[in-house]
Amino acid sequence: MTYNVQIKVMPLKDLLDPQGKAVLGGLQNLGLGNVADVRVGKHITLQIDAENEAAAKQIADEASKKLLANPVMEFYEIEFVN
Amino acid sequence: MTYNVQIKVMPLKDLLDPQGKAVLGGLQNLGLGNVADVRVGKHITLQIDAENEAAAKQIADEASKKLLANPVMEFYEIEFVN
């Protein structure tokens, strides 16, 4: 079966996020001063062929650990969609 | 009130996604051949000060249109989290 998996990779909460700071500055220049904090990460969708959801989750987990996220600077969350 | 808003910005479905193709190749080199398709986009979290959810949604919408997403190549989705 084919599973649609969404992986969110975001900078760790304790770390500075220069890209987010830049976006925040840009928004304030556009007059959107009500925005207080911005963080920017990656959103990745995978189509995984697997026997069941547990197997698909394991593949997504391995992909995140080995390639998609850098655990020193980022955390990831895996979500299934239909 | 402060609202936590998540914005997902992804390449349009009809367009090629070179970054996704590169990730797909990388995953196959790592032996994860069960992954069939990859698309890579941005995930942005905003903290918005607004009177109500509708006002916060409008600010997020304006931010997406003016700065975060390029409508020629990308679509966006706004989601509220608590």
Automatic annotation (TrEMBL), chains A, B:
The keyword Metal-binding does not apply. It catalyses: N(2)-formyl-N(1)-(5-phospho-beta-D-ribosyl)glycinamide + L-glutamine + ATP + H2O = 2-formamido-N(1)-(5-O-phospho-beta-D-ribosyl)acetamidine + L-glutamate + ADP + phosphate + H(+). One of its GO terms (biological process) is 'de novo' IMP biosynthetic process. Pathway: Purine metabolism; IMP biosynthesis via de novo pathway; 5-amino-1-(5-phospho-D-ribosyl)imidazole from N(2)-formyl-N(1)-(5-phospho-D-ribosyl)glycinamide: step 1/2. The keyword ATP-binding applies. Keywords: ATP-binding, Cytoplasm, Ligase, Nucleotide-binding, Purine biosynthesis. InterPro entries: PurS (IPR003850), PurS-like_sf (IPR036604). This is Phosphoribosylformylglycinamidine synthase subunit PurS. The lineage of its organism: Bacteria, Pseudomonadati, Bacteroidota, Chitinophagia, Chitinophagales.
